[in-house]
Structure formats: structure tokens, C-alpha cells
Design a protein that fits this description.
Structural class: alpha/beta
Number of strands: 9
Mean pLDDT: 95
Largest sheet: 9 strands, mixed
Oligomer: single chain
Helix content: 10-25%
Distance between the termini: 30 Å
Strand order of the largest sheet: 3-1-2-4-5-6-7-8-9
Number of helices: 5
Length: 213
């Protein structure tokens, strides 16, 4: 029986992306090959529990919620996850995934909404960006930049222009929690007339840095 290694499954409001604020079931997979400086889910690097697909589905079903977000860690680091995405889509869920951008998204079920990071210089993991993924982005997908400094912001502007990102999908700018002031990032975006969407982490505004919410 196929299994995935799971850190937690919980019901909360989506804190980021274009579905922000919507009740969502989060399936947090264990393990990640990246070590970003701002990571707030390092508790998902190891441990976890092996669960069968049926066990995971049973956990999801109890919440009677149509939105499911596969996250991590890095959910695409577990190869069996790809078939589980397809299974969720076949069952009629509205599925999204949060991925760090270092794994191939081309083989994901096309019904999955992809929220893909491109790692900035101050993340410490910029060299892991798999830029080939940009060719596989759909209009319903999003590219997210977590911005730690003005240097990161300037790099993001350059990268958007280089890959024509705003013509491919929605682009999200997220201030790294505690590193960039919300007002500063907002002013930079407005001054430069960028066609991006600024987002803050709604779950942290509501619950702070608690996990599993």
C-alpha cells in the first residue's frame, strides 16, 4: 500500500496565495532538502509518521472542506506525492501545493494550483532554483518571492523582467517575517509600479508563530 511521510494534517485558514482566507485542510509532508534562512517549518525536516493514502484521505474527509493544500517541508521531495495529488483531484478537491522551486512541477496533475517559490539571495538557497519550472507555470499558478532585504527586492525585480513572470502567472511578494517591514515593501512596490501582489502571512497575524494552525 502506498504511503507518505506526514508531519501533520490540520484545518485552518489559508494564510497566503490567491486563496488566502479560505478554510483549507493542510497536509504537511516531512522532509526538505533546502535550508532557507527564514524557514519557519524546520520541525518538518525529520520525524513524521508514515500514513497510507486511505489514512490521509480519512483525515482530510473529516473536515468537510473542499480546499486541500499539500505543503512541507517540501512535498515534492516524496516521489509518491505526485500520484496522491492526482488522487485528490480525482476526488473533486480543489488542490494547491506550496513548493520551494527546486523540484520538477511538470509532472504534477494540471488541476493542481502551484504556488512556487523562487529563492532570493538572502534565502541562502538561490542556487537551488530550478528555472526550467517557469516554462510549466499555468495562469492559475503563482510565483512567490520571500523578500528579506532591499537587495532581495532588487533581485526579484530583475528576475521578473528576465523571465517575463507577470505575463505567465500571478507574482507574490512576501516580506520575510521580522526582517522586512510591511510598509517598506508596500512603498517599494508602489514606487516602482510593479504588477505584483503583496501578501502577508494571515495565519501569523491571527495566531502568531504557533504551528498547526
Amino acid at each position: 500500500m502506498s504511503k507518505l511521510r506526514i508531519t501533520e494534517i490540520f484545518h485552518s485558514l489559508q494564510g497566503e496565495s490567491l486563496t488566502v482566507g479560505l478554510p483549507t485542510v493542510f497536509v504537511r509532508l516531512t522532509g526538505c532538502p533546502l535550508r532557507c534562512t527564514y524557514c519557519d517549518t524546520d520541525y518538518a525536516f525529520g520525524g513524521g509518521e508514515w500514513m497510507s493514502y486511505d489514512e490521509i484521505l480519512a483525515e482530510i474527509e473529516q473536515y468537510n472542506c473542499q480546499h486541500v493544500c499539500m505543503t512541507g517541508g517540501e512535498p515534492l521531495a516524496q516521489k509518491r506525492a505526485y500520484e496522491f495529488y492526482h488522487l485528490l483531484c480525482e476526488k473533486g478537491y480543489k488542490v494547491s501545493t506550496e513548493t520551494g522551486g527546486a523540484h520538477d512541477i511538470s509532472v504534477l496533475d494540471k488541476r493542481v494550483m502551484v504556488v512556487m517559490d523562487l529563492k532570493t539571495p538572502d534565502s541562502g538557497e538561490m542556487s537551488r532554483n530550478l528555472y526550467e519550472n517557469i516554462d510549466h507555470l499555468k495562469p492559475t499558478d503563482q510565483v512567490k518571492f520571500v523578500i528579506c532585504s532591499r537587495k532581495d527586492y532588487d533581485w526579484c525585480k530583475m528576475t521578473i523582467d528576465k523571465y517575463n513572470l507577470t505575463e505567465k502567472c500571478e507574482v507574490l511578494f512576501s516580506p520575510s517575517y521580522g526582517q522586512v517591514e510591511y510598509a517598506d515593501l508596500a512603498e517599494w512596490i508602489l514606487k516602482d509600479r510593479l504588477r505584483v501582489r503583496m501578501q502577508v502571512q494571515l495565519h501569523k497575524v491571527i495566531w502568531g508563530e504557533r504551528t498547526g494552525v
